Amino acid sequence: MDSGKTFFGHPSGLATLFFTEMWERFSYYGMRALLLLFLVDSIEHGGMGLGDRTGASIYGLYTMSVYLLALPGGWLADNFFGLRKAVFIGGCFISIGHLFLFIADPHTFYAGLICIVVGVGFLKPSVSSIVGGLYTNQDPIRRDAGFSIFYMGINLGAFISPFITGAIGQRVNWHYGFGVAGLGMVIGLVQYKLTEKTLGTVGLEPVKLKDAGLQSLRERNIRRGLWTTALLAALLFVLVSAGMITIDPVVIANGSGVVLFVSVLAYFIYVFLFEKLSADEKKKVGVIGILFIFSALFWSGFEQQGSTLNLFADRYTDRIVFGWEVPASWSQSLGPVSIIIFSPVFAWLWIWLARRKISPPTPIKFSFALILQASGFLVMVGASYVVISGHKALPSWLVGTFLLQTFGELCLSPVGLSGVTKLAPQKLVGQMMGIWFMSIAFGNLIAGRFAGEFDANAIQSNPQRLPDLFLFIVKITLVSGLVMLLLSRPVKKLMGDVR
After folding, report:
1. Environment class of 8 (CB within 10 Å of its CB; exposed 0-12, middle 13-18, buried 19+)
2. pTM metric for this prediction
């Protein structure tokens, strides 16, 4: 562990992880800003020319999958590669994926999406777990503050990316925009390897079994599994490319939610029955399961930013500034810039409250996040009524929504990341971080599927559909926030000594 304090009073290794994640988010938010708009844009304008429902399904499957693979990625990092190597492998996959997207061919495009999905699955849970490993369990307050700083790195990359990738993708060429997004990941990989020594021994080795024979057997089985998975994926790609298998994104998206929920439930059952946890550890894992549900509900609303709100910016927002039309993708920078401005404020606030012993526990913060989310979409209900009155909405409506969502995100996301590293048994940290990202995956899938209901033709024939869609989200998130508030006391008891 690096004990130096050279990065805002934190271990110097935090700087390495800060910039690695910043550039990975540059890549991801470039994709988030462009992907759905590219999928539904006409072929004449360089897009894929897909319908709203199909394009939204592909978008939802993609954004779901980048987080869905965090669970197997975290497991492989814990048991085979080690966290540090998993970060590097993930970055390489992401870079290769963007190279495929740069090539203007449908087959390489989908191959690129798959590579990025695999890469994020390795990198995301691993880099977050390493952040937690920089601090001891006796330093929970500074760990929370460290995650808030780390979260600023995430949002710095997310803020910059839509301006650059959006301008190039929407004004020059979609594929150039995807290529520039990948260049960010390459930069992140280079700085990661150059400064990796600041991490000391954190995440250097996977968890080893005490029995050398069992360890060797486990490694052989994992290698076989990886090669089998790679060969099956390659075979599927060939069959789809040859037209021998037809894949319907809408059908797959409809069934993915059920598969995802069953998979998470099965994993928790496995952990409780076969991981030989103590009673206290089981209670804390149970808390992670509860937080998973409410986290998924939060992200199902929050991730509308890249889908529904992105389409609202493109179709129903007045974006003319001094005679020039601002790219709709630039709206994706509103959330990140709000995070950059208010993240230090919230980091200071949590420490200030903790010193006075009045800091709200994690469940209360989750409740605040959901209620703020509902407030943000209530703003969009107002914006929708402006649209159905025959006018385009001013950008201020989106600004207000993104700001309220940001406050909700700051109550939930860095707190959730830190909470998982504190609640998870040491041998399962990477996997439990994967579970956290699976809640985001579930939310992303719902957000993508919901965007399919944002069909322009359906709204044109029934304008009231627009405010009704946003009002539906208000109801769901508000009720969820109130339920979490009622559950906060028993959940806090299950957390034991974790604060």
Report:
1. middle
2. 0.82
